[in-house]
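ARCHIVE CARD
SHELF: 3
SLOT: left
DATA:
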Amino acid sequence: MLIPSIDLMGGRIVQLVQGEKLKLAFDDFEYWIGRFEKYPLVQLIDLDAAMRQGENTALIEMICGRLRCQVGGGLRTAEDGRRLLGAGAKRVIYGSSLFGESTSHSSPDSAMNGAREIQRRHKVIRLEFAEGLKRELGEDALCFAVDTKGGKVAVKGWKGTVDLTPEEAVTWLEDYCAAFLYTHVDTEGTMQGFPMNVAAMLRASTAKQLIVAGGIREAREVEELDAMGVDAVAGMAVYSGMMEA
């Protein structure tokens, strides 16, 4: 399945190269919403929120009212997800907040307010947080983002990494979500092609829905991924006109 992406920054639809360099920007929301109305799922990411430099809440609410979206970008508590689901999101995406070696907390809503420390089951993956999200929001509402840069899980708007491979992350987190979103940051926005060996490795690591992104440039790749049982997010190829959507 092809999943079109809508990335928001500064009130516009944008496409970045490797999460850093602005390549394309659009203001015509009606045009792109019309293009994507036929799809059963659209990926909607608030890049400003992910990079902790603002938010695009009004646009997210408007788009969720028109399209079936899984929404992500800077979600840190269960309440963040609850708010987006209330705004019409079909599913919410958690990424960076699932990883890190800092203090773990007893509930998903206490992640930012200094609740009592509890014993962690994994030194890098916040399993207790993931478990709390499942309890608070329900497994079907959750997509966990496992993005990599140089082979390690990337966090904080892809500015940093943690010492963890994507297959480790997926294996540990599988019990708490309905789907995984994997972005290959090294090829994101480059249209150089997605590494199929990575998709195969991840497909073997989880029985949950697997969605991949990063460098996809043509329909043939989407078909090859589909044959593996993997869904594909396309952004740059669609917005540049390389791929029909």
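SLOT: right
DATA:
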Amino acid sequence: MAAAAPSFPRLVSLAAHDLRTPLATIHGFTQTLIRMGDLGEPKQRYMEMIDAASRQLAELLDELGTAARIESGRYEPALQEVQSLELARSAAAQLGEDRVKVSGQGAQVHVDPEATERGVSALAQAALRHGGLDEVALHVDGATLTISPVTASSAPVVLGEDLRDLGAAVAVRVVHALGGSVERGGETLTIRLPE
């Protein structure tokens, strides 16, 4: 009797895990060459570009792994009490304060800080990128965060319904897996985090 085939989310998780080893090698040697210096231009610039690309690939693999664990029911978040305003500020800092304006009053929330911060940042970035915007507002009201504006054309992508942005799609799944919600009303995306 043939063994049952592994689920697709399990295969994605395995692929993301296995790809980390060669990626770590690329990143490690790139870092070594950059630290050695004296590469001259344009070699130094190329090494820095390879380094930045390897970091982006690592982040994408983390996103894929998280999505696969959620889809297969194996997601085990590292839950902690964190301040929602600080979480929002850290998420915005990843994109730049000139692009994401943070305001409001925070509260203690019970989340996986790293995954939630990465998710809030991804949702803001998706609103910017797919809405053709230069700036969005990230307002914090206790355990509720709002991002605006979210254009009508970008809303399906930001909500993870139109799968054209991995970060946004995973972010919505993470918030739901933590017991929160993500919804849109008008030009506002509302993220409710568990307290």
